[in-house]
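Postdoc handover notes: sequence design on the structure in folder B. Input tokens:
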């Protein structure tokens, strides 16, 4: 092989290595993105449950306050 052919071969090999690295990084990023989306979905579901519990607690407290006020005025 001549000198230019060897240089081109080395450059091509370098490009192949870089491409393999990019493919590996892409796969890792894609996996991380998928994992983050699942976690986000879980957190949104948890938030919805917590909001529901908060609203239920608020309603109960408001009901107790109303009953206490009614008892106070009735006594």
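Designed sequence:
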């Amino acid at each position: 092989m001549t000198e230019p052919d060897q240089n081109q071969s080395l450059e091509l090999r370098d490009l192949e290595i870089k491409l393999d690295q990019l493919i590996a990084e892409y796969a890792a990023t894609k996996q991380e993105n998928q994992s983050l989306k699942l976690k986000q979905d879980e957190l949104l579901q948890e938030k919805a449950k917590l909001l529901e519990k908060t609203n239920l607690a608020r309603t109960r407290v408001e009901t107790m306050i109303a009953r206490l006020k009614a008892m106070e005025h009735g006594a």
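Context for whoever picks this up: The chain has a mean pLDDT of 95. Don't rerun without checking with the PI first.
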